[in-house]
Amino acid sequence: MGTTLVPAEKWPVLARHDQAAEWLKVWTDLGRAPRTIDAYGRGLAEYLLLCEATRVDPLVANRAHIAVYVRELTTRPSHRGANVLSIDSGSGLANATIQQRLVPVRLYYDFLIEEGVRESNPVGRGRYTPGRRRGGHERGLVPRLTKLPWIPTEQDWLALLAVAALEPIRNRVMLALAYDCALRREELCLLETGDIDPAHRMVRVRAETTKNGLERVVPYSAPTGVLLSQYLIHRASISRARGPLFLSESRRNFGQPLTLWTWWKVIRRIALAAGVPRFSTHTTRHLCLTDLARMGWDIHEIALFAGHRQIQSTMIYIHLSGRDLGKKLNSGMEQIHSWRVEMLTRLGLQPTEVASP
């Protein structure tokens, strides 16, 4: 019950709409992760606040009212500056964020339909309709832009490593494990001592810490194992109790489990010091999976390593590595190269004698 109060405390507007509070409680009772509930609460709260500001009853809102909300999201001032021309360049929220904000609003209206309060959902969703032109696909309310994740260049990576080398042993081993095992931030920070198998250099990523509830076991390299051994000795000076692997060393929270927020601040500090501000806690995962694709790993192997439920998620890293396109380019270039060499060796022949490629 305490979890349901958190969004209402942050956004009191939810408490002013009975159906909204009830909808959020249903998702909480279904066992959704606290961060998911928090995101749902925030997204719906922003929409309800706009409804109140424009004096629109959300129970009878139509697509025109939703369009006003979308316009507000796309024109909202951004921390990156106001002198921009497109959604992703600094004015308004990013496309992915807008899609995320619309999800709880769509689910909220689905709930109202199930409860018999409404007959239709004003938030459209992309769907396949047999018989439609252009493949039968109907576009959603907001076009979905699919962008490849950013990964650092070799120069960026070396700059980051130079700064990370000066960090305490805990931060260094966390960064090494994050890359070596392609761990998400939550998976890394919630590791426990019992999840590590030093004898076989394996990490067990428990289902309850993953994004999609899929447990997996992944290896880590020998250099990371050396760092981890050093950290375990250091950790024993903080606490000999089994449990969370990474502990806080601040005076306020000494010996307590390291929080996601603390790890974010560590990475942010390293990124800024290295002059690579785009580097984040998720970048190491992107880089690892891209490197695996570059090394020629099979897509199913990468999916298993990453803990992806859908192969489509893994395809991102195949595209990002340019592996398949690179093979085709190299194959084509070999033919072109052979042809050019042949042409150079036959310069003395008559034009009619020179074969075309």
Structure description:
- The protein is mostly helical.
- The chain folds into three domains: 2-138, Tyrosine recombinase, N-terminal domain (DNA polymerase, domain 1, Orthogonal Bundle), CATH 1.10.150.130; 154-320, Intergrase catalytic core (hpI Integrase, Chain A); 324-353.
- The protein has helices spanning 2-10, 18-29, 34-53, 63-75, 95-114, 154-164, 169-180, 185-189, 222-236, 260-274, 283-294, 299-306, 311-321, 323-345; strands at 127-128, 137-138, 196-197, 202-205, 216-219.
- The strands form two sheets. Strands 3-4-5 form a three-stranded antiparallel β-sheet. The protein has a two-stranded antiparallel ribbon with strand order 1-2.
- β1 (127-128) and β2 (137-138) form a beta hairpin.
- α3 (34-53) crosses α5 and α12 packs across α13 (311-321).
- Residues 1-5, 80-90, 127-132 and 351-357 have low confidence and may be disordered.
- Keywords: DNA recombination, DNA-binding.
- It comes from Kutzneria buriramensis.
- Residues 147-330 form the Tyr recombinase domain.
